[in-house]
Every structure is written in C-alpha cells, then in structure tokens.
Amino acid sequence: MKKLNELYPEVEEDILIKAIKINSKEVEEGDLFVCTMGVTADRHDFIDDAIEHGASAIVVSRDVGKKNVPIIKVSNTNRELPYLCQKFYDYPDKTLKMIGITGTDGKTSVATIIQTLIGSDLCGYVGTNGRSCAKFTGDNPNTTPDVHYLYSYLDEFVGYGCKYAAIETSSEAFYRGRMQSFEFDISAHTNITSEHLNIHGSFENYLESKLMLFKQTKKDGFSILNKDDKYYEKVREACNAKVLTYGSSEDCDLQIVDYKIHPNHTDITYKYKGKEIKIDSPLMGDFNVYNLACGLLCALATGFDLDVILERIKNIKISGRLELLKTDTPYYVMVDYAHTPNGISKLLNFVHTLDINRSIVVIGQAGERDYLKRPLVGNVVVENASYAIFTYEDPRSEDPAAICEDIIKELKETHNNYEIVLDRREAINKAVNMAKDKDMVLILGKGNETYQKLKTETIYFNDLEEAYNAVAARKIKEEATN
User: Fold this and answer.
1) If residue 431 lies in a helix (H) or strand (E), which one and from where to where?
2) Which residue ranges form the domains of the chain, and what is each CATH number?
3) pLDDT tens-digit profile of 15-52?
4) For the whole model, what pTM was predicted?
C-alpha cells in the first residue's frame, strides 16, 4: 500500500491507497480507480459507480467535473496505468528475473516446464492455468492478465520469496498495451501460426505483436528460439538479446537428435555443448519434445546447473494438457487445451500413433473470437479424427448454434463423421457412451479451465470433472443392466 501523494507528489492528500482498479464493480474501500479506455467502454463513464463502491481517488485523462474525492489528470490513462502499477508495487518486475513465453501453441506447457525445472519455490507462473508458486495457486481473468492484476501477482511472488517469473505473453496483451512497461531477462518462442485475426486484423499485425516480446528483452538477456519454426528468421530479426536456438539441425544450441514416443512417456536424445543428453520425459507427443527443449534452454539461460534441471524433469505435470483420465475402463478419455488448427492436427496425429481404435473428439470454438478459424478447425478435426461432436465453447454473446454452423459449413457435402450437440455436458456424455474397447475420447479446447462464458453469465464448468462424471455414470448404467 502507498499514500496517494507518494504516487503523485503534486497531490496534497496523504490518503492510503490499498489497490489499483480499472473495473468500477471491483472497486473496494480505499482503492485508486484509473479511467482507462477499454475495448468497448470508456471507464470515465463509471467514475460515480467507482466512488459509490469506495474509491479514494480517481485518475482521468479528460475533464470530469468536481467530485468528492481527489481527481488526478494525466495525458493518457492507458499509458499511465502500467507505470503507476510499477511504482505502487515497488517495481516487482525489476526484482524478479522475468521470463516471457510467446507462440501460437505451447505457451502454457513451456511456462510450466520452466517453473518446474527452476523450482516453484523460486519461480512463479502466470498464464492460462492461473498463477502459482510453491506457496499458493489462484485464477487469472486472461492468459496474460490486465497490467494491474499482473503487477499485483508479481508482487505476491516477491513476497513469497520467488526470484523468477515465467509468464505466458499473448499477442493480445502486447496489442492492448498491457506489456509496455516490462523488460524481459529471457524471452522464448514456441511456434507461430495464424490465430486471433479478429483482434489483429491481419497475420502481419498478429506477428508484429508477437515480436514485441523480443524487442522488449534486455540486451544482456537471452531469446530462446525454435529454429524449425517457419517464422524463425522473422523472430530472430526482432531480437535485441543473445539468441539461443533449439531444433533438429546440428547448429542449434540444443539439438533434438532423436526421440521415441511411448503411451505414457517419451525417450529423447538431445545434444547440448557437444554432449548427448538422454531423457525419459513424462510428456507425450512430438510437440512436447520441442516444448521441453525450449524449457530446458530457458532454465539453462538462467544459470541453473544442467544436472539439477535434468533431475527435475520427472516432476513435470501440465494440467489439462494430454491429461489421460485415470480409469479402469476398456476405452480411454483424454482432456487437452488444443484449440488451434495446428495444435489439434499435431495432437490427433500423435494420438493415432498410440494403440487405439477410433478417436472421438468433442470440441467447439469460442464466441467473439477469430471466426475465420472455425471452418479450419472443423476440417482438421473430421479429417484427422474418426468422429467429431461439435459443441459450445465460451460462446459469450454469440449463438452457439451459429458458431457450430460456421465450424461445419465446409463439411456438409464432403463428410458425415460428425454431429452437433450444443450442450457441452451432453456432448461429453455422448462421446463417452459411444466409446468402444480401445477407443480414445478427446475433449479439446478448454483443458483444465473451470468456466464457460455464456451470453448472460459465466458458469463453473470443468472438462476433466465432466469427463470423470460421464465415465462414472456410464459405469453405473452398465452395472445396472448386467
């Protein structure tokens, strides 16, 4: 906490500020309300609501008249917010070694791998799976939260004794200006394919937003790049820091020499500094061979000892990523976050290397998001899976039926291995009930997230729990009929 005149010396009042907020509904007694410009709202319109909720002072960028609390006027509240938060929380981003991960797929996996290899006692995590360190776990409103949340989370990490923070940095976060105040010690790149064009307008704009991470990496830091990615050269051109590479070619700093995927682990041979490293990884899929390579290089770039890092690989567990249900059924059920055409294709290709019969996929597409991606996802699923059940997935203000129609619009004349079941719970139950011996049910798109965003409300919903419930209900039904 800080006094108002510590944040703004020109202000006489020494009011104690407890937190910084930009949503008037979240304001509590003693908060400082900053009137930023949102995507669809001007928060100057909610000043009275913020004061009613207990705001002690207001930061504005236009005249708002006299109020019964101090008003601080700045030229641009959106640009002001990150530096205000930095000061309020005593520059936690300068105390921590900041590790940023970007890419279309794999951000959560790489960030979790980094945290595990460094140790959750020393490294905090912020991303799709929430925020965590050894001392606590919590939820996030976004993959990369608004800057006032992010600084408060970094402050928590410092308070708990962390020295590092592994953060998933989304293209939207850079595009919206949430990351402008940050400098990174280490930046990492997984891959880049088309995504979020509804926000960025073009792939070029999307790519440029991704590249901001590398432009904001310190010159004495490291940028860890996937040399096998199509856009590697573009990413390298944007780098300020020393570049370390991973990939299949011999000139990579960490070379992927060979790997063999088993049903529950992967044997990998890497080469680092001329020596071969043999690893028994708990992660499955060729994409996780790359994710682990990226995480290893990031951890090595921090200065951690290789032997210590290698010993911790066995502890890696990525919630909601290739998470196979622990059941005694003759069929399999897996939950995964894959939601992009590239991610889904790689996942399904991997699954069909396992000893299974059919693959049955449950998937939707988010409302108010990249609608151009919907038919691409539909095509990838029906062409790579035995059967698909399309359903809702965070429809928000959109009609779930219309979203599903977008998904299948290019399939009607060419495929019949799919159906639409709008209710996600029903879709999961149907997939589980139609599974036969050695079939694999894949519930994709949400991983271990605990919500669904509907038109009028956000409800609790967790694919893992729903999958376990569906398996249990089927078992009860089968026992009753036998």
Assistant:
1) helix 424-434
2) 2-77 (3.40.1390.10), 92-315 (3.40.1190.10), 323-481 (3.90.190.20)
3) 999 999 999 999 999 999 999 998 778 999 999 999 99
4) 0.86
